[in-house]
Amino acid sequence: MNALPGKFDRLRTEFFRPAGRNTASGIVFVSRVNGATYSVSRASSIVRQATGGEVTVYSGGSPREGRSDKFRSWDEEKKENAAAFKANRVPVLVATKAFGMGIDKPNIRYTVHFGMPMSLESFYQEAGRAGRDGKPARSTVVFSEYDEIRSDQLTDPDLALDELRERFEEVDGDRNTEDDVTRALWFHLQAFSGASREVDAVEALIDVIGDLSSSRRREIPYDGDDDKKHKEKAIYQLLKLGVVRDYEVDFGGKKFTVHTRPFDLDGSRQRLVEYVRATTPGKAKVFVRRANAIKADNPGGSREAVLALIGMLVGFTYDEIERSRRRAIMEAVQLARHAVPGVPSRRQDLAVTTSGEDQQAQRGNRRRPHRAVRLGVA
User: Fold this and answer.
1) How many CB atoms lie within 10 A of CB 206?
2) Predicted structure pTM score
3) Which tens digit of pLDDT belongs to each residue from 91-101?
């Protein structure tokens, strides 16, 4: 942040101050609302200290710290924060990706990505908020990597998910070696717990729902965040097939209320094929043949048909979506690791902060000492 004014030939005392349409507005993107690392609250504090100016925040959920008024609803407060930023009353906004793509603010001069983007697409979307008036703009990725060799091993696209999980567990929990790559993979592995576990969760849900031939209303209790996450994913998968019509979450009572409709095999087949066709068109024909082979013409057939379709859906998710997202992480690592300051990237310059230790490591054995990421050195 301290280096930014010089990139635009501006005085630091002026650069981080409101100046109407001439304000050098900037967005600092973070990956999390709360948490010790890369959270809205932590980043806003660092940015405020580095710039000496006013900073506001925006995120989908409410930050536990850094609220200007804890007695107002967060929805109301974040809307006012966004309005102050867009009206040039506050020059810097610290935000998660919840700060929408539709924001058309022409005088955003820079974006700072506090941590590695999860994909090239997300980086382009976020970096693309800057320079919309055609004037020079800059996008900086603040990237930390403990060991390139370890990162390459963990992001190997040919690695089976179970193998990745084993390798990750060997390094997970060591705060001294935590970096952007391990943080990204932690979120990835939380999202993809395993195909068999997901199918088992749907089967358990069907057992609670019972008869699938009629409309039903069932309450599904959950115990803690992890149980909630897995049960909600199972509900959502049945929603994709049209078995579940709608559901509500009672956070106080810790339960879901699930509304089902009578199982329609043809309709569920079509929903599955349409989902595959929209995601990976080349796979659609194969799925049509496999889906048409599923029957529900015997007692208990509806249950078995639903589980067969769920098996196809989950298998497709892991074969295509999971691997695609893992490749996106690998590409983001390569972007952050090898980007050169001053090289255009969709009209923006991409710069990656490096230290003297990093440069020595690149000339040596490829191992970089782990370093704390600080916006003040960008």
Assistant:
1) 19
2) 0.77
3) 999 998 888 75
